[in-house]
Amino acid sequence: MIPLLDASQMAPDVAEEQFTLESKLDRLRLHKTSKLPHQKRLAVLLEAVEETLKEQNTELTASAYVIALLSILPEAFTGSELKNQELAAAAVYLLDVVLQHASSALLIGKFTSILSYLTPALSHSDASPALVRSALGCLETILIAQVSSSWLASASENGPRKALSRLLELSLDERPKVRKRAQEAVTTLLSHPPPGPATVHPALNMCVDLALNLVKEQYAEFTSKSHHHRKQQPQQGHAAALERKIIFLLQLIRAIARNDMGWPISKIEPLCETLFSISRSADEFLIMAALDVFQSLFTKIAGDSEEKEKMDGATFTMIVDSIMNLQPAHTDQQRAPTWLAIVAQCFAAYSGIDEARAFARLPKLFETICDFLESGLPPTVVTSASQCLIALATTCIPYKILLEKPLTKSTKRTLSEISKSALSLLSVKYQAAWKEVFGILVALFDALDFVANPYLVAAVATIGELRTGEQFEGRAEADGVLSAAIRALGPEKVLEILPLNLEKPGPKQPGRAFLLPLLRDNIRNAKLSHFIDYMVPLGDHLSQKLGEFTEEENPVEIKIYATLIEQIWSLLPRYCDLPSDLRQSFTQKFAEFLANILYQKVELRQVGCKALRILVDSNKLYAEVDIDGFNPFLKAKLSKEDAKKNLEHLSTMASKFLAVLFNVFNQTVTEHRQYILDTINSFLSVTPAEDIVNTFQKVVGLLNPALEAAAAKKSSPSGKFTIPPVSHTMLDLIVAMVPYLPRSLYSDLSMIFVSTIQSGDAQVQKRGYRIVSKLAQSEVGSEYLIESMDSLENAMVSSAEKIASPARGARLTSLIDIVRILPSADLHFIPAILPEAVIGTKEVNEKAREAAYQLLVEMGDKMAGGGSVSICKVPRMDGDAADVEASINEYFTMVSAGLAGSTPHMISATITALSRLLYQYKNILEVNIVSELIATIDLFLTSKNREIVKAALGFVKVMVTTLPKDLVEPRLETLVPNLLEWSHEHHARFKLKAKHLIERLLRRFGIEAIERVFPEHDKKLLTNIRKSKERARRKKETAEAEGGDNDEDRGARKKKYSSEFEEAIYGSSSEDDDEYVESDNEATKDKRKQGNGSDKQETYIIHSKFEDPLDLLDKKALARISSTKPTAPVNMKSRQSKIKTTASGKMLVDDEEAGKKATDPDSEMLEQLAAQAAEANPINAYVDAVKNGPVRGQRNKLKFKNKRRRDEDSDEDMKEVRKTHRRAKF
What we know:
It contains 61 helices and eight strands. By secondary structure, it is an all-alpha fold.
């Protein structure tokens, strides 16, 4: 018995290497049929290399690929000459791929030979950019692998430094892609220092010195050339070349600065001097390149705490001063945005080095940058300035300075000057940039928090006044500022500045109902007393007004006031989120008030429960979890000790609130109980143990008579909108209390569990099983279940036959929890419940079905863990049966016993269970077990029972998609014909399933292997699949060309399965599955996609002028809803009424004599119309006159209806009558 090799049994790095390398090579192999020559050349060369390695019986490892490719390179190069560039490009590209997965020992040992092969590609003038880029990738990989000792050799020796010199030369290449790839290689190399004590790469100083010296020399030469020979064309061309060279060097410096180790601290000052000299030149391109280097440098310093600690504050202050002196013109769209970005990054780094000095310089800096926000400046400059100020407010205002008590005079002066500059932005001078200004104010409010009072209070008043203006367009941005003000200042201060004025608003006192949603979303750590003193009286007053309007039957005012009351009470949960005055405000009086709200006002019950739950949970989270880092100002408002005292205060009221919540829970319908149960759980977590015991005993005392009464009644109301029986309610409360009960009450829980699972009520059973699940979730409960495992197993086995269908999901879930803690000595419980788990895979309820699958997997894991199974202890088994060693193979043998079941339902369920288990344990099963299983299921494909065959098709799909080829391929000779037997069966979509499995087999084993075992009379199916594939591919190419199929749509289609097993069964294992379109459904899909180009089916409402508007609440509404677009009915009655018929429907034709006596058809029609008019009702004539008469339109003018269409219809009717009359005469 040789087990299959599991990827988890391999070394992690080896398994990952093989998977990654194989996936990359698989993508390259797909290019064998590519129309692009260079792609096809890669696939052909890879295939040739692999064939050679297989002939030599060499394992396909990364090292083997490297050696094979190195042997090919001499055929492409002759010394330093490039003999075959196409072969060289393909070979070096493949070498770049496989070198990344080769061992370090190989890269170190073969460094010289690999470098000698790469030298022609890196230095030859005719080498293509693609070849050079691939060679650079190889060079990067082998340089990273070198050890520290190899870097000690000089650049003149044939070692890593010499190769790095060539890499630096290519970093200045004229070809953009080559230059970019070389610079990326430099950054990557310097970010990966060799193993050793040094944290900096040994080649970093070499790169830095070379780049700095070169840029200084080139810039000096550029300055002299541009100064002395400005008017000479040849010299101007040389100056342009020098300019490009300097830009390339600056890009190289930026690449060096971006490495993980950063730019050396000792080299920052000379670098900045060079960059400053370049920034003062008149060349815009050089200035932009220098500013880009500054930005990269400061970004790295700002994000690295070690760099900040090493940096000298005085030196960095000089750098900051120099950068401020580079200030460009306000209208410069090129330099101004870059300079502003550099200022933001520079001060972020400055704040990390010396936060006090950086904070002290903010007022002047704010004043300087505010000038870039003036009206009339380019939008890019304005946006960059606003982003700069936002970054400064976020990074340069340290909370440590703000939290000093009391604030120093210098801090107050700095904050006053910053707020003065910010408030000045609300003047007309900056009106065009107000939306950007509002973003700056938001950042300041968030940075200052409660310290913003009193510095930014004036901004709240100004923006509140702007917000109430009817012509103001920036309401969304203004709401953002007010929201930030609420978070920082609190609702009390904001409402003091901007009163709500909900009643009788006027010009001087505008109504501000728009603040209520803002308050709801942004209140945090507020004073609960403000809600009690301000919002509660306001809500009561509005409720009185609502009652008055209800008596007056004023629907508009009723709706307005009801909405206002709802919005006011929606603020209560936010006020209860870590209030700063909980112990002072949450008094007995307010608790009684909330209890009355829960009892009397059903519409506010959910809000009240949410507020109580947040009140408890927020204090628990703050007291138990360290969340100070998220909001440094929170600790100043509320300490952890305060939160713990708050919980103690709440625990004194917990038992009373539990009583209230229990009563409310008992009076609430099933649909609206969950939020009350969540609130009960929150209060149970802070209730003293003694109160929990007393409460539990009271609930148990109510449960027993309720169960007896329910058993005697034998019927109970059910439904989401009915109040459940008392027995259900008490069990729900007991389940909620289980995690908080002491160990001494677990015996009572066991008695309740045993009695409830024997009940005939499905809902009682369901709640009984939940008790076990709740116990298993806690450590103490799990220990108790293990101790009482024997009685628990007996109870579960004995109740299996009494289980009601609605409770099966809860039972399976409890079995999962039991199996997880099952001791190895009790493994006989697994075969006892195995049939139930197998049958559960056929459950209609999705949750129960998923639980059955999970139970099968949990039992498999437990059996795979080893142990002994006492078969004699399994019910209905022989008492003398020998014990069996637990293993995954034995587990499969147990499950396979169901294949001998007496009913198709049991056999089908067993096959489904085996499919799930095969998918889970395919890598650890023995080969002979898998082979026997495949052969058995292959036989079931020949069954005449469709239920069995349906499950067998699912097993085949798992088998085809997950098992190795060498296990499935021997069964193709019988598997394919058995599948094709169902390709002619349309019932239960067997034809489509069989065809889809054939498509899978074609992709997995190829057309030749499948065609060899394909019956001759079914060869048409292969032709159909091939044509469908080609047709789908053409449609896909057309859709991609038209932009109809994008990655987002494809991703949305893929994401539709809840588990990997379902995706394996119902989904596709190939990215190209959409190419296999079922030909039977293509016409339907095409019709569905016509119009809007979407698969979404439209719904239409059938209208009729003789019917009332559609009432969607009416049960008859479905008769007037159609999935196809309705067409107007043809009025045949008007045409048929002109032809005379008998009572039986036969047409009357005048005979010859009657025809002779007939009058002219027009005259006859006029006589008929006259007769009808004489017999007509005068009321109908009046109605017709009103309908056809004039109507009054705009400005009270008469407007006559157009009768042309009606006249045309009349003419058509007259023509039809004439034709009929002529036929009659004939």
